[in-house]
Design goal:
about 750 residues; alpha/beta; Heat Shock Protein 90; Rossmann fold; five-stranded mixed sheet; elongated
């Protein structure tokens, strides 16, 4: 549909403003000029007082008459006219002369014969009279002089009368001319008003036309909007269908993979011949490779849809790098390569990052370096990024075959592989580098590559990973079942192979497992039995993991608060948020490995190494310290030996003793102060003292005290005396265990 306007309809706001401005300029400029002219005419009449011409001429004639009368009166022998009075009348007359000659608009009169004659006679009279009136005393004595002056006045009076009449005529002419001009300007104003009215009507017509066009355009836009809304709904439906397809396919593919990999792992632990073990290893490698390709495809799909989200958390960067190094070193050793991973001394200990995605970038780059290097070495270095407080720089350099410029230019193109027999023989999905670059971009960074054929390659990764502090309770995952409590686990899993694998896995981890096939059966079991944790598959018949969790939270009794771990292969990113909203406690990814499950259970707080809760003591009873032989004083479990060793090495012995006394020495030690606050029951003081103890314990690496003080700080607002007594007992036990662990640590150091 073509809705592009034409003609006036295509005018923009600027065009209309310019057109209206031009029309106003054309019509208002002449009108303004006419108004200006009228203003000048009015000013000419008002300011210059045109009627003063007639008035001043009349006053000059009148004053000459007064002077003549006074002079005639002075001729009477009985006259009482004083000389000064005559001089006064003369001075008034003379003053009127200047008013006439200098009056406003005298140009209307000073060229007329009457004016010229009158002024000539007046000047002649003044010339004769000035000497006479200069001597007032002799004025009355000289009668003949007065008679001569009277004669001159009588000769001048007719000329002044004619001047007055000429002034009247000049004023009349001026008024007539002004009236004619005003009438002409009035006609022009009327004409311009007509033009303005016409222009206004024209603009009104154009505006109406424009509005009609806009209505049509609006209707067209509404139609387009409806079409776009339909297209958007169709696209969203297609995108939702894609998401559902990805979720279902990831489940349908990864679920059998869990069974395949799980069974291969279990088979590898049985007694096998060398040939059989080789077959198992080959099958496992193939499955892992296929799973890696699947993960790459799913990652690219979620990136394309914009649903991939990072999940940053506190990460110990060196530990993550060491984990990747340990896994890749075996692959490098198999090819006879030397692998070296260096971390700068000023690298942040803890950063906020998505560990899975940072690990994925490292695996991709190191994996490619090992894959395309036949001899020599692979070197990775991690350092701070210059001029960026939160920046981390990762470089991966190899001595492999290298690449030419054309290959480098296409390196991050999807599915691209250089036309090289060696590279094609080695193979790969061609997605890893694209995924790594996108992940780096999501972390505010980038990936660059420099390579020359036969000279190896250098990949440089810049990531923005803000520095953070260690979490209050760092995870400590143990692969040994002896360090965990025995849990009673309810497992809902509909896949028979996975059921078998989960049974063996949980049995080897030292837990008791009860199995069911769907969420409905899990709810029935929870109503009849007690469990420590529920493992739910996300996709199940009858009732899936989400709905089952929601139903569990609606149960009556203690099982409504049971820990729920959702086991899922779903890659749709909003799954985690939806699951948390309905009450899921933790997540474990498929294919499920023992270490992943162990971590999930620990994050639920089910595998913390702690003694069973003591029974509630009587109110007001003293907190009893546990007996030493009842305590598990394992230094590794209670103390971060690395952090503690660094503190000990950094501080003098007396300073270290003083620092320890601020924790343990009664009654001022932080532990004892917190115990007193717990006994007093002041929530604000408890929170303050617990926070203070937690900070000192974190500095020294006392894990148990950090964990317990953080728990006390979190639960401080709760008005529960029994809970406070239980926390006090736990705190006292942790203090005793930590002190014993410090003794064991000191003894081991001396030995």
């Amino acid at each position: 549909m073509n809705t592009r306007p034409t003609g006036l309809g295509s005018w923009r706001v600027g065009h209309w403003v310019a057109a209206i401005g031009a029309a106003l300029l054309v019509t208002l400029t002449p009108l303004s000029y006419i108004q200006w002219k009228q203003f000048n005419l009015m000013q000419d009449v008002a300011v210059n007082q045109i009627d003063s011409i007639m008035w001043q001429s009349y006053q000059l004639e009148r004053e000459l008459g007064h002077l003549a009368y006074a002079m005639h009166s002075s001729l009477d022998p009985e006259s009482t006219v004083e000389p000064d009075f005559l001089v006064e009348r003369y001075d008034v007359f003379v003053s009127r002369i200047a008013l006439v000659t200098d009056m406003p608009r005298s140009d209307l009169l000073n060229t007329t014969p009457a004016y010229l004659e009158a002024i000539r006679l007046v000047n002649a009279f003044v010339t004769d009279a000035d000497p006479v009136f200069a001597d007032p005393a002799g004025l009355l004595a000289q009668r003949s002089t007065r008679l001569a002056l009277i004669q001159t006045i009588e000769q001048t009076e007719p000329a002044l009368g004619e001047l007055t009449r000429e002034a009247n005529r000049a004023t009349a002419r001026f008024v007539d001319e002004r009236n004619i001009q005003l009438r002409e300007q009035g006609r022009l104003v009327i004409a311009l008003a007509g033009v303005q009215a016409g222009v206004l009507l024209l603009f009104v017509a154009l505006l109406v036309r424009h509005l009609r066009r806009q209505v049509v355009q609006y209707e067209n836009l509404q139609a387009i909007s409806r079409e776009l809304a339909v297209a958007r709904d169709e696209a969203e439906a297609a995108n939702h269908g894609k998401s559902v397809f990805l979720a279902n396919m990831s489940h349908e593919i990864r679920t059998p993979f869990q069974g395949v990999l799980g069974m291969l792992n279990l088979l590898d632990e049985t007694r096998l011949s060398g040939q059989q073990r080789d077959y198992v290893q080959t099958a496992r490698d193939s499955a892992q490779h296929l799973l890696g390709v699947l993960n790459d495809i799913l990652d690219v799909s979620t990136m394309e849809s914009g649903t991939l989200r990072l999940a940053p958390e506190p990460v110990r960067l060196r530990s993550l790098v060491q984990e990747v190094e340990g896994l890749m070193r075996a692959a490098a050793r198999e090819k006879g390569l030397t692998m070296q991973v260096d971390t700068a001394h000023d690298l942040p200990e803890w950063v906020m990052a998505d560990p899975t995605r940072v690990r994925q970038i490292l695996f991709n780059l190191l994996g490619n370096a090992v894959k395309f290097t036949s001899q020599g070495s692979v070197t990775a270095r991690l350092s701070r990024l210059d001029n960026t407080p939160a920046g981390v720089c990762i470089t991966v350099q190899d001595t492999g075959m290298g690449m030419d410029r054309a290959t480098v230019a296409q390196l991050f193109t999807r599915f691209y592989q250089a036309d090289n027999s060696v590279r094609r023989r080695i193979g790969g999905s061609g997605l890893g580098l694209e995924i790594s670059r996108n992940l780096a971009n999501m972390m505010g960074g980038s990936i660059e590559v420099h390579s020359e054929p036969g000279q190896g390659s250098l990949f440089t990764v810049h990531l923005i990973l803000p520095e953070t502090v260690a979490p209050a309770q760092a995870e400590h995952v143990s692969d040994q079942p002896g360090h965990t409590r025995r849990l009673r686990v309810l497992v809902a899993e509909d896949h028979p192979i996975n059921l078998k694998y989960m049974h063996i896995l949980l049995e080897r981890m030292g837990h008791e497992a009860v199995f069911c096939e769907n969420g409905q059966e899990a709810l029935q079991l929870l109503e009849r039995q007690s469990f420590d944790v529920v493992l739910l598959d996300y996709h199940m018949p009858v009732l899936d993991g989400m709905a089952t969790t929601e139903a569990i939270r609606a149960l009556e009794g203690p099982n409504k608060d049971i820990k729920v771990v959702l086991v899922t292969a779903d890659v749709v990113n909003d799954t985690r948020k939806k699951a948390l909203d309905v009450g899921v406690s933790e997540f474990a990814s498929k294919p499920l490995q023992a270490q992943d499950l162990q971590r999930a259970l620990q994050r639920c707080g089910l595998l913390d190494a702690a003694t069973a809760p003591a029974s509630d003591p009587a109110p007001g009873a003293e907190l009893a310290a546990p007996e030493p032989e009842e305590l598990n004083a394992s230094a590794a479990g209670l103390i971060d030996t690395e952090s503690y060793t660094e503190i000990v090495a950094m501080m003098p012995a007396d300073t270290m003793d003083e620092l320890l006394s601020t924790l343990f020495e009664p009654p001022e030690g932080s532990v004892h102060v917190l115990l007193a606050s717990l006994a007093a029951g002041d929530a604000d003081q408890i929170a303050y003292d617990a926070h203070k103890l937690k900070g000192t314990a974190m500095l020294l690496g006392f894990r148990a005290l950090v964990r317990t003080s953080a728990q006390i700080e979190r639960l401080a607002p709760e008005d529960n005396a029994a809970l406070r007594r239980e926390l006090g007992t736990q705190l006292l036990a942790d203090m005793t265990r930590t002190q014993l662990a410090l003794q064991q640590f000191a003894t081991a150091e001396q030995a």
